[in-house]
């Protein structure tokens, strides 16, 4: 944990979250951009992150995506993970976040924003929980309430999803389904 806490501890911030808002490049991916000869863009997503997003949604916390780039690959990833609130080509991520909060009737304290670069700082500072990946610029790390142990595209999103569920006492319930399936198989 880093940044200023304004009297609220990390656990209290996590308990208030009803929406996890994610950047894509550098958070859901490792930040690398692969473009084929045909101009097609390719991205690699971590399977653990996708399941984490689904589990978080099943626990009652929605997931949204706000990205500055436009990509059909990201749209497909959003659909496959059940993300309903999806903003592409968002040159002003803060405006997109404010639109999202208005549409969902959520307060800033109920939102967490996870970013990796300075363009993510305005929405991060607006949310009740600002999250950065460890290879973010120092300015972001300074203002983050939480810095993940895992890098973007390498399980950082799953780490945050589990952290939120643990703080909200929904983690064990989400894991129970897998334990039940495992005991049936034995």
TrEMBL record:
Keywords attached to this entry: Hydrolase, Magnesium, Metal-binding
**Record-listed substrate binding positions:** 25
| E.C. designation(s) | 3.1.3.45
**Ribonucleoprotein: is it a keyword of this entry?**
no
Required cofactors, per record?
Answer: Mg(2+)
CDD domains (UniProt xref): HAD_KDO-like (cd01630)
One Pfam family cited in the UniProt record for this chain: Hydrolase_3
Residues annotated to bind Mg(2+): 23, 116
Indicate yes or no for the key word Metal-binding: yes
Among InterPro entries, the record links this protein to: CMP-NeuNAc_synthase (IPR050793), HAD-like_sf (IPR036412), HAD-SF_hydro_IIIA (IPR006549), HAD_sf (IPR023214), KdsC_fam (IPR010023)
What reaction does this catalyse? 3-deoxy-alpha-D-manno-2-octulosonate-8-phosphate + H2O = 3-deoxy-alpha-D-manno-oct-2-ulosonate + phosphate
Q: Which NCBIfam families match?
A: HAD-SF-IIIA, KdsC-phosphatas
Family listed: Belongs to the KdsC family.
Summarize subunit and interaction data from the UniProt record for this chain.
Homotetramer.
User: What name is this protein filed under?
Assistant: 3-deoxy-D-manno-octulosonate 8-phosphate phosphatase KdsC
Native organism: Methylotenera mobilis (strain JLW8 / ATCC BAA-1282 / DSM 17540)
């Amino acid at each position: 944990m880093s940044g200023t806490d304004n009297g609220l501890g990390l656990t209290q911030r996590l308990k208030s979250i009803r929406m996890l808002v994610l950047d894509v490049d550098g958070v859901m991916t490792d930040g690398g951009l692969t473009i084929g000869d045909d101009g097609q863009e390719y991205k690699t997503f971590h399977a653990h992150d996708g399941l984490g997003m689904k589990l978080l949604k099943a626990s009652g916390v929605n997931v949204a995506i706000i990205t500055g780039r436009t990509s059909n690959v990201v749209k497909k990833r959003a659909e496959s993970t059940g993300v309903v609130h999806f903003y592409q080509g968002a040159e002003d991520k803060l405006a997109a976040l404010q639109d999202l909060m208005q549409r969902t009737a959520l307060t800033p304290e109920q939102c967490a924003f996870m970013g990796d670069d300075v363009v993510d700082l305005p929405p991060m500072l607006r949310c009740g929980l600002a999250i950065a990946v460890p290879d973010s610029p120092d300015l972001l790390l300074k203002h983050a309430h939480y810095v993940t142990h895992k890098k973007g595209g390498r399980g950082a999103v799953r780490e945050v999803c589990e952290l939120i569920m643990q703080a909200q006492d929904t983690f064990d319930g989400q894991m129970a389904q897998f334990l039940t399936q495992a005991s049936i198989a034995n």
